[in-house]
Amino acid sequence: MSVLETEVLPQLPQGVTLKPSDYKGIKPVWCPGCGDYAILNALVQVLARNRVDPSKLAIVSGIGCSGRFPAFVKSYGFHGVHGRVLPVATGLKLARPDLTVLAVGGDGDGLAIGMGHLPHAVRRNVDLTYLLFDNHIYGLTKGQPSPTTEVGHKTHASPFGVAEYPLNPLALALIAGATFVGRGFSSHTKHLADLIEQAIRHRGFSFVQIMTPCVTFNDMYKVWKEQAYEIGPDHDTSDFQAALHLATAAEGLPIGIFYQAEKPTYLDRLIAGVKESERLKEARRYDDEADAAGLDKLLERLQ
Amino acid sequence: MPAVSDAVKALTVARRQGMTIRVAGESGEGVITAGEMLTWALGRAGLWVSTFRTYPAEIKGGPCMFQVRFDRRPLDSPMGPADVLIAFNDEAVQLHQSAVRPGGVILYDRHADGSVPEGLRTDVTARSVPFGQVAVEQLQNRLTKNMVALGATYAAMDLPLDSAKQFVARRFAAKGEEVVSINIRALELGHALAREQLAGLGRLAELSEEEEQAAAEAASTGKRRMIISGNQALAIGAIAGGCRYYAGYPITPASDILEYMAAHLPSFGGVVVQTEDEMAALGSVLGASFGGVPAMTATSGPGLSLMVELIGLGVMSELPAVIVDVQRAGPSTGMPTKTEQGDLNLAVYGGHGDAPRVVMAPVSVRDCLDVGRRAFETAEAYQTPVIVLSELVLAQRTESLPVPSGRDILKRFKPRTTADSLDGAVNGAYRRYRRTEDGISLAAVPGNPAGLHVITGLEHDEYGHPSYEPDVHREMSLKRWHKLERLRREVESRPDGWVERFGPEQARIGLVGWGSTFGSAREAARMAEAMGIPVKGLWVKLLSPLPVQILQAFVDGLEAVIVPELNLSGQFAHYLQARGVRGPIVQLTKQEGLPFSPDEVLARIQEVASR
Question: Which of A21, A94, B406, B587 has the lowest tally of Cβ within 10 angstroms?
Answer without folding.
Answer: A21
